[in-house]
Amino acid sequence: MKFIATPPAYDLTYSDVFMVPRRSSVASRLDVDLTSTDGIGTTIPLVVANMTAVSGRRMAETVARRGGVAIIPQDIPTDVVASTVAKVKNSHTVFDTPISVTPHDTVGQAISLLAKRAHGAVVVVQDGKPLGLVSEADLTGVDRFAQVHEVMSDDLVIVSPDTAPEDIFSRLSEKHLTVALVCEGDRLLGVMTRKHALRSTLYRPAVDPDGRLIVGAAVGINGDVAGRAEALLTAGVDVLVVDTAHGHQDKMISGLKAVGEARDRFAEQTGRRISVAAGNVVSADGVRELVDAGADVIKVGVGPGAMCTTRMMTGVGRPQFSAVLECAAAARELGKAIWADGGVRYPRDVALALAAGAGSVMIGSWFAGTYESTGNLLTDAEGRAYKESFGMASARAVKMRTRSSSGFERARAGLFEEGISSSRMYLDPERPSVEDLIDQIISGVRSACTYAGAASLEEFHRFAQVGIQSNSGYEEGRPLPAGW
Ligand SMILES: NC(=O)C1=CN([C@@H]2O[C@H](COP(=O)(O)OP(=O)(O)OC[C@H]3O[C@@H](n4cnc5c(N)ncnc54)[C@H](OP(=O)(O)O)[C@@H]3O)[C@@H](O)[C@H]2O)C=CC1
Ligand SMILES: Nc1nc2c(ncn2[C@@H]2O[C@H](COP(=O)(O)O)[C@@H](O)[C@H]2O)c(=O)[nH]1
Ligand SMILES: [K+]
C-alpha cells in the first residue's frame, strides 16, 4: 500500500482515508480471490469477534458456510464450547440447518423458533420425514394453541443433495416458494432458500482437513490457560485466540507460551498444527513480542470497538487504520499476519483494513444485530427488532467472567469496567441476517479490489493507493437518500 502524498504526522482512522482507483486488468468482480492471507483456512477475510452477545453456534456455522470463521468467547465454559464445536462440525457445509417441529406442536412453539434462523420457515417433521412447512404468514393471526399440522403448507419443493443450486433456484421460482427441503431418501438433511442457492455459487465454505466447517475459541490470560487450551484443542477447534485488553503484558507472554506448547504437543500427537492468534496490541513492538512468544496471528486494535470505552476511560489506544498499517508491516516482516479487530461499521472499513495489510478483519457489534447472534430477538415499542449487546470488559461481562470469585472480588472487578453493559443493536430490515451483511461486505471488498487492479488480497495490499481526506471529503462520499 502506498500513500499518494506524504502522510501526516498524526495517526489515522478508517474515516480519514480513501483509495484512488488504478488501471485494472481484472475483468470481473467475480474474478477476485478473497482467500485470507492469514493461513487459518478462511475463503473470505472475516472473523466474528469473541463476544458473548455475538458469537455462538448459529453464528459459527452460518459464517463458516460462507467462508469466514467465528471465535467462541473465553467466558463460555469449556464443556459448552466443546458441544458447540461438535455441533458446528456436524452441520452441513452447504445447506442451512433446519428448525423442525412435530405436527402436534403448537403454533406458539413454531413462532418462538422462527427467529432462530433467517430463512423464515419451520419444517414439520414426523419420524425424520418432512410433512410440511410453516412460515410467518401461515402463523399470523392464528390461535397460539392451534397445532402446526392445521396451518402448515404441504406444497413443498423437495430436492436431493446433489441437485444443482441453479435448479433449486428455478424450482422455487416456478412455485413462488422460498425454501427447498433437501432430503436424502426420506431424511431431512437441510434447507436451501433461493438466496442460499445464489450464495452457494459465490462462496466456498471454510473447512478443516476432514471437510467440516471450521470454528475457533478464545482463552483469557487468567486461571488455567494451558488447561483450557488443551481442552479446546481436544474439542477440535481450528484456531485458538489468546485474548486480553492489554496484550503487550507479561501475563500474556507467559500465557501465550503455555498455549503454544499445548499446541505443539497436540501437533505431535495428531499431525495437525492449529494456529494461535493473540492480542490486542497496536504497536510493532507488541507484534514482535507476541510473535516471539508463539503467535501466528496478531489481533490489532485498542479502543476502536463499538462497545469499547477504553479510550474515553484511559486516553489509551490508537486510531485503527494506522495501528493496522504499522502492525501488519511488522507481522509481514516476520512471515505472520494480523487481524484488524474492531471499529468496522461499513464495507469500506473492511476494504481499508485489508488494503493496510490485515489478513482478516474481526467484526463484533455490527453482527450483533442479526438473527444469528446469540441473543434473543426483542422488539421495541415501535415494533422494531433488535438484539441486546454488551462489551466483554463491561461490568456485566466482568461479573460473568468472575463468577467463581467472592462477592467482594466480583464487585471490585466490576469497578474497572471499560465497556458498555447494555446497548440495542437493531436488525436492518433490509439485511436482518449475518449472511446479508456478509453479502454487502464481500461485494464491497470485491469491488474495491478491482478498482485497485487486484485479483487477490495480497495484490490488493500491494497495489492500494491511499489518500487522506477531510471531514467534508468523507461526507461527500455518503449517499443522500432524502435529498438535501
Ligand atoms: N480491543 C480493545 O480495545 C479491548 C478489548 N477488551 C476485551 O474485553 C475482554 C476482557 O479483557 P480484559 O479486560 O483484559 O479481561 P481479562 O479477564 O482477560 O483480564 C485481564 C488481566 O490483565 C490484567 N491487566 C493488567 N493491566 C490491564 C489493563 N490495562 N486492562 C485490563 N486488564 C489488565 C488484569 O488484572 P487486574 O484486573 O487486576 O488489573 C487481569 O488479570 C477481552 O475479550 C478483550 O478483548 C477489553 C478492553 C479493550
Ligand atoms: N474496550 C473494550 N473493547 C471491547 C469490549 N468488548 C469487545 N471489545 C473489542 O471490540 C472488538 C469488536 O469491535 P466491534 O466494533 O466490531 O464491536 C472486540 O473484538 C474486542 O476487541 C469492551 O467491553 N471494551
Ligand atoms: K470505541
From TrEMBL:
<keyword id="KW-0520">NAD</keyword>
<keyword id="KW-0660">Purine salvage</keyword>
<dbReference type="GO" id="GO:0005829">
    <property type="term" value="C:cytosol"/>
</dbReference>
<feature type="binding site" description="in other chain">
    <location>
        <position position="308"/>
    </location>
    <ligand>
        <name>K(+)</name>
    </ligand>
</feature>
<feature type="domain" description="CBS">
    <location>
        <begin position="94"/>
        <end position="151"/>
    </location>
</feature>
<dbReference type="InterPro" id="IPR050139">
    <property type="entry name" value="GMP_reductase"/>
</dbReference>
<feature type="domain" description="CBS">
    <location>
        <begin position="152"/>
        <end position="209"/>
    </location>
</feature>
<feature type="binding site">
    <location>
        <begin position="243"/>
        <end position="245"/>
    </location>
    <ligand>
        <name>NADP(+)</name>
    </ligand>
</feature>
<feature type="binding site" description="in other chain">
    <location>
        <position position="303"/>
    </location>
    <ligand>
        <name>K(+)</name>
    </ligand>
</feature>
<dbReference type="GO" id="GO:0032264">
    <property type="term" value="P:IMP salvage"/>
</dbReference>
<keyword id="KW-0677">Repeat</keyword>
<dbReference type="GO" id="GO:0003938">
    <property type="term" value="F:IMP dehydrogenase activity"/>
</dbReference>
<feature type="binding site" description="in other chain">
    <location>
        <position position="305"/>
    </location>
    <ligand>
        <name>K(+)</name>
    </ligand>
</feature>
<comment type="function">
    <text>Involved in the purine-salvage pathway. Catalyzes the NADPH-dependent conversion of GMP to IMP.</text>
</comment>
<dbReference type="Pfam" id="PF00478">
    <property type="entry name" value="IMPDH"/>
</dbReference>
<comment type="pathway">
    <text>Purine metabolism; IMP biosynthesis via salvage pathway.</text>
</comment>
<comment type="similarity">
    <text>Belongs to the IMPDH/GMPR family. GuaB1 subfamily.</text>
</comment>
<dbReference type="GO" id="GO:0003920">
    <property type="term" value="F:GMP reductase activity"/>
</dbReference>
<keyword id="KW-0521">NADP</keyword>
<feature type="binding site">
    <location>
        <begin position="301"/>
        <end position="303"/>
    </location>
    <ligand>
        <name>NAD(+)</name>
    </ligand>
</feature>
<feature type="binding site">
    <location>
        <begin position="301"/>
        <end position="303"/>
    </location>
    <ligand>
        <name>NADP(+)</name>
    </ligand>
</feature>
<dbReference type="InterPro" id="IPR000644">
    <property type="entry name" value="CBS_dom"/>
</dbReference>
<feature type="active site" description="Thioimidate intermediate">
    <location>
        <position position="308"/>
    </location>
</feature>
<dbReference type="InterPro" id="IPR001093">
    <property type="entry name" value="IMP_DH_GMPRt"/>
</dbReference>
<dbReference type="InterPro" id="IPR013785">
    <property type="entry name" value="Aldolase_TIM"/>
</dbReference>
<dbReference type="InterPro" id="IPR005990">
    <property type="entry name" value="IMP_DH"/>
</dbReference>
<keyword id="KW-0630">Potassium</keyword>
<keyword id="KW-0129">CBS domain</keyword>
<dbReference type="InterPro" id="IPR046342">
    <property type="entry name" value="CBS_dom_sf"/>
</dbReference>
<dbReference type="GO" id="GO:0006166">
    <property type="term" value="P:purine ribonucleoside salvage"/>
</dbReference>
<keyword id="KW-0560">Oxidoreductase</keyword>
<dbReference type="InterPro" id="IPR005991">
    <property type="entry name" value="GUAB1"/>
</dbReference>
<dbReference type="Pfam" id="PF00571">
    <property type="entry name" value="CBS"/>
</dbReference>
<protein>
    <recommendedName>
        <fullName>GMP reductase</fullName>
        <ecNumber>1.7.1.7</ecNumber>
    </recommendedName>
</protein>
<feature type="binding site">
    <location>
        <begin position="243"/>
        <end position="245"/>
    </location>
    <ligand>
        <name>NAD(+)</name>
    </ligand>
</feature>
